[in-house]
């Protein structure tokens, strides 16, 4: 179990460092498309590098989906979630340390790739839009993960399928919420940014967990499972 938790922490740190880092350090040059690819490629890297150890969930919503799908126990889920959040905070801390090396970096202005919605945040989408997007996108994401790692899936391609799906979700949703679909990914930057990032955080915990849980329930029922 220790090896699994270390792998989850490192993998989630990789996701936050590369994904949020692409927005903070290079966002002005690579745009939304580049940021989307960075998140997707980070998942691919972690999945192939660490997936054999822990399954590379890197996301409490994914782990909860595994619970409701019958692939993981609640006790293991709690341990995974704690490791994932610790990894996300570590990744955000490393990113902050690097970003502050630029003389004109101001945390309150530049941020750390935190999620949000409403006035002053990217497309200024409403709370309802943020909740619906995060719920639906996480449902899709976890459904793909369960299918790509389940019976009948093409061996060796899960990491690529999952990473490309995350990139596609970002291409659609960055302007809406910055895209969470992952409570740990949202918690990491919010811890350091504070303010509105903390106030909005509940959305990026509740909606992804609900979407992930539903994906697991439908998978367990056989409706979205190849051998169902």
TrEMBL record:
The organism that produces this protein has a lineage beginning with: Bacteria, Pseudomonadati, Pseudomonadota, Alphaproteobacteria, Rhodobacterales
Protein family: Belongs to the MIP/aquaporin (TC 1.A.8) family.
A GO term for molecular function: water channel activity
Membrane-spanning ranges? 5-26, 32-56, 77-99, 125-148, 160-181, 201-223
| UniProt keywords, alphabetically | Cell membrane, Membrane, Transmembrane, Transmembrane helix, Transport
The topology of this chain with respect to the membrane is: Multi-pass membrane protein
Q: Name one Pfam family in it.
A: MIP
Compartment(s): Cell membrane
Q: Which GO terms describe its cellular component?
A: plasma membrane
The gene is: aqpZ
Q: What is its main location?
A: membrane
Spell out the SUPFAM superfamilies in the cross-references. Aquaporin-like (SSF81338)
The name under which this protein is listed is: Aquaporin
Q: Which domain of life is it from?
A: Bacteria
């Amino acid at each position: 179990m220790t090896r699994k938790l270390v792998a989850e922490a490192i993998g989630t740190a990789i996701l936050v460092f590369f994904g949020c880092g692409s927005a903070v350090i290079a966002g002005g040059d690579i745009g939304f498309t580049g940021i989307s690819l960075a998140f997707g490629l980070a998942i691919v890297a972690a999945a192939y590098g660490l997936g054999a150890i822990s399954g590379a969930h890197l996301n409490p919503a994914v782990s909860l989906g595994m619970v409701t799908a019958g692939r993981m126990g609640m006790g293991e889920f709690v341990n995974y979630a704690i490791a994932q959040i610790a990894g996300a905070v570590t990744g955000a801390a490393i990113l902050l340390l690097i970003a502050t090396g630029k003389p004109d970096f101001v945390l309150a202005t530049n941020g750390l790739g935190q999620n949000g919605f409403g006035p002053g945040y990217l497309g200024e989408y409403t709370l309802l839009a943020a909740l619906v997007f995060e719920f639906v996108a996480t449902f899709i994401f976890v459904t793909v993960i369960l299918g790509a790692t389940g019976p009948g899936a093409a061996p060796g391609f899960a990491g690529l399928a999952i990473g490309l799906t995350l990139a596609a979700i970002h291409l659609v949703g960055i302007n809406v919420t910055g895209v969470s679909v992952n409570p740990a990914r949202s918690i990491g930057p919010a811890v350091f940014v504070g303010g509105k990032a903390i106030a909005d955080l509940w959305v990026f915990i509740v909606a992804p967990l609900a979407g992930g849980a539903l994906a697991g329930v439908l998978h367990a029922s056989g409706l979205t499972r190849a051998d169902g």
